[in-house]
């Protein structure tokens, strides 16, 4: 049998986002973010609702008047804000080389518009990065992970108004300057392709505030602003921290044709191309022609300011990062087919794949497939910055958590990465999602657990928040120690 060969400097680690783990939603001057409006809905079967895409103006009004932290699950998170040193000790014990975190914009500029940054927010991340370095853990920092200031959503139409580009770039410059000696790897927008699936979380757009027939154009315009902001962030990163690296971040939604009917194959090809479009702009520095053709056909008018095209072309990313959880099926007959879920989309069921408790299709070979396909397309180093199994875990009477299902999930997915490396794909690293249990993005609950480390809290945020190592903790530690040889 072939022995897996991961590069010596392979970045093994884990991934988190500020709004899903920090809690402390209104401490030390932090402003309210869009994430602080999303609620856990105890009476809804998590399988039945997808993301916080249905948020209304009324929901926001209520959220702004409420101090509740129980139903607004991202307000309590898993208390990483106060416990990060203890958590970093555990990550270091597993041998993490890298930890993906995000900076909450609202800790630095509470409403996004202040002239001066909030010093306490800056200090918090400074100390977080210093503590990581002490433990030989490299920070991988997302600048925008579903947590823009709510003020901008309410007063600037989220990313729809061009002025937000400058506000974001200002925030980026501040954090680049402050952390220039601490952070080398950066990502601009988490899952930038989510703009259509859940516009509120991604671009701060409350859809009931705009005419329905204009929405598509508004979303494309906001996306364009994010693309320009991403390029400008890359420009300033290069000026302020020479040698640092910037990545884009895509939700990889691989889709297979339902069968070899050329119509299904063509549909799958086009669906995959739609998914790649978002990374294409950030890697190739221009919009693909087919998107502009679609705009023409639909009468969509996206305003480009003079200089935008040059900015996109000049400041492209150094590496391509992505999340991978599941694959989909493209079928011209989709309406009549059985469906499965994702956190953000539903799709046609693939009869060859198992599903998780949340009805997500598990497909390790799809990761191998995506890695080859993406490398052939982009010829840039790839970084899998999210992957994992959301599952209920049982805390046994002896205090252990026997999560063999998670070990099996990771074993297969890490093998898929090894296979892709064997096939010549350049992979920089792997950061499984929610390496520490945290609050779910879509369902806002804790019991959908992803971590190697269990957090003793329930969906309403009650509990001791004690950290407990799961069986997978020891397994992953050994994977890292043997550089992926022992799975
Ligand atoms: C990704 C997001 O889409 O999926 C994360 O970047 C999210 O923020 C993860 O948590 C898993 O989804 P969920 O809804 O199960 O938390």
Overall SS class: alpha/beta
Kindly report the name of the CATH homologous superfamily of the domain at 51-68 and 89-387 and 415-431. Answer: Glycosidases
Q: Major sheet, described briefly?
A: 8 strands, parallel, barrel
CATH topology of the domain at 51-68 and 89-387 and 415-431: TIM Barrel
Q: What percent of the residues sit in helical stretches (DSSP H or I)?
A: 25-40%
The first-to-last residue Cα distance is: 13 Å
Q: For the largest beta sheet, what order do the strands appear in spatially?
A: 1-2-3-4-5-7-13-14
Quaternary structure state of the chains depicted: single chain
Which hetero compounds are present in the coordinates?
Answer: 6-O-phosphono-beta-D-glucopyranose
In DSSP terms (H or I, runs of 4 or more residues), the helix count works out at 16
Low-confidence stretches: none
> Which outline best applies?
globular
Mean pLDDT: 95
Number of strands: 16
Per CATH, the class of the domain at 51-68 and 89-387 and 415-431 reads: Alpha Beta
- For the record, the CATH architecture of the domain at 51-68 and 89-387 and 415-431 stands as Alpha-Beta Barrel
The value of Rg in angstroms is 21 Å
Q: How much of the sequence is in beta strands? A: 5-15%
Topology (elements, then pairings):
Elements: E1 11-15, H1 18-21, H2 57-65, H3 73-76, H4 80-94, E2 98-102, H5 105-108, H6 119-134, E3 138-144, H7 150-155, H8 163-178, E4 185-189, H9 199-203, H10 215-240, E5 245-251, E6 255-257, H11 262-284, H12 289-298, H13 308-314, E7 319-323, E8 328-330, E9 339-341, E10 346-348, E11 354-355, E12 361-362, H14 364-378, E13 382-386, H15 404-422, E14 427-430, E15 453-457, E16 463-469, H16 471-481
Parallel strand pairs: 1-2, 1-14, 2-3, 3-4, 4-5, 5-7, 6-8, 7-13, 13-14
Antiparallel strand pairs: 9-10, 11-12, 15-16
């Amino acid at each position: 049998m072939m022995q897996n060969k991961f590069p010596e400097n392979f970045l093994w680690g884990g991934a988190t986002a500020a709004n899903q783990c920090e809690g402390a939603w209104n401490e030390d001057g932090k402003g309210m973010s869009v994430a602080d409006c999303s609620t856990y809905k105890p009476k809804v079967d998590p399988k039945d609702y997808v993301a916080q895409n249905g948020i209304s103006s009324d929901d926001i009004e209520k959220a702004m008047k409420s101090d509740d932290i129980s139903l607004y699950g991202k307000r309590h998170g898993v208390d990483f804000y106060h416990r990060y040193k203890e958590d970093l000790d555990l990550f270091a014990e597993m041998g993490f080389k890298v930890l993906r975190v995000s900076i909450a914009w609202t800790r630095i500029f509470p409403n996004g518009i202040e002239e001066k940054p909030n010093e306490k927010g800056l200090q918090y991340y400074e100390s977080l990065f210093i503590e990581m370095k002490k433990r030989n853990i490299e920070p991988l920092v997302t600048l925008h992970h579903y947590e823009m200031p709510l003020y901008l959503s309410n007063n600037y139409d989220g990313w729809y108004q061009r002025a937000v580009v400058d506000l974001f770039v200002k925030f980026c410059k501040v954090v680049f300057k402050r952390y220039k000696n601490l952070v080398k790897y950066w990502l601009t927008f988490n899952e930038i392709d989510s703009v259509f699936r859940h516009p509120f979380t991604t671009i701060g757009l409350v859809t009931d505030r705009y005419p329905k027939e204009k929405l598509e154009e508004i979303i494309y315009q906001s996306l364009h602003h994010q693309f320009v902001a991403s390029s400008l962030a890359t420009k300033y990163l290069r000026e302020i921290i020479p040698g640092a690296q910037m990545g884009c971040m895509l939700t990889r939604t691989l889709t297979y044709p339902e069968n070899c009917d050329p119509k299904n194959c063509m549909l799958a090809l086009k669906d995959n191309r739609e998914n790649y479009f978002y990374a294409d702009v950030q890697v190739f520095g221009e919009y693909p022609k087919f998107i502009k053709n679609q705009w023409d056909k639909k009468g969509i008018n996206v305003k480009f300011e003079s200089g935008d095209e040059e900015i996109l072309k000049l400041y492209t990313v150094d590496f391509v990062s992505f999340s991978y959880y599941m694959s989909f099926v493209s079928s011209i007959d989709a309406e009549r087919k059985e469906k499965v879920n994702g956190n953000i989309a539903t799709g046609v069921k693939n009869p060859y794949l198992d599903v998780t408790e949340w009805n997500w299709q598990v497909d390790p070979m799809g990761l191998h497939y995506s890695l080859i396909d993406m490398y052939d397309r982009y010829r840039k180093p790839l970084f899998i910055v999210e992957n994992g199994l959301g599952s209920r875990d049982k805390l046994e009477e002896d205090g252990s958590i026997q999560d063999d299902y998670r070990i099996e999930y990771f074993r297969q997915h890490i093998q898929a990465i090894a296979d892709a490396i064997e096939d010549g794909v350049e992979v920089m690293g792997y950061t499984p999602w929610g390496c520490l249990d945290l609050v779910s993005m879509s369902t806002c609950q804790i019991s959908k657990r992803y971590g190697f480390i269990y957090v003793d809290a329930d969906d309403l945020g009650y509990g001791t928040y004690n950290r407990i190592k799961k069986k997978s903790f020891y397994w992953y530690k050994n994977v890292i120690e043997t550089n992926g040889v022992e799975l």
